[in-house]
Amino acid sequence: xxxxxxxxxxxxxxxxxxxxxxxxxxxxxxxxxxxxxxxxxxxxxxxxxxxxxxxxxxxxxxxxxxxxxxxxxxxxxxxxxxxxxxxxxxxxxxxxxxxxxxxxxxxxxxxxxxxxxxxxxxxxxxxxxxxxxxxxxxxxxxxxxxxxxxxxxxxxxxxxxxxxxxxxxxxxxxxxxxxxxxxxxxxxxxxxxxxxxxxxxxxxxxxxxxxxxxxxxxxxxxxxxxxx
Length: 228
Description:
228 residues; mainly alpha; Four Helix Bundle (Hemerythrin (Met), subunit A); 2 domains
């Protein structure tokens, strides 16, 4: 699975256009407003990926560099449609793009879903939407553990126990004598606790650090490798 600034930028711009997000408006609302939180996420993601492309293309031809400069100007003007038009014309060799490869052996049935969620968690992390990144890590582990349980028992917890949480899935695995490395169990409980703090409303909003979010993502990838 790769994380590509060209593709990430394209997806973010499509999201902006589909949801009617304004690139030029700055939020005056609290972070709990979902629509404004989503808008901030898209704006940050677009800005960050334009910056990445500027760095990648600094030694390329003048025409390409001018396109990146034009995208910066259009971003300031809030013209997502025009930026998308330029992105469609960009010709940047794959080898020149900063790509991170994640090689995980996953069951075919969940492979695409897990990899898409990992890519989205990475985009959230890069956009400083750290709680969203952690919540996605919890979702990834739920998908993986449901599959692990089904592969061993032939029973689908999504049908018999819809809404079951990570902790209860681990308990079900133990009841069925499915061995899970204790270190993996500890990592899963850690991520689950972080996810609970991220999702449920508290008197004080949970604000994870960049380091916490990064560690959560690394733990998640490590768990997937150990499970399969």
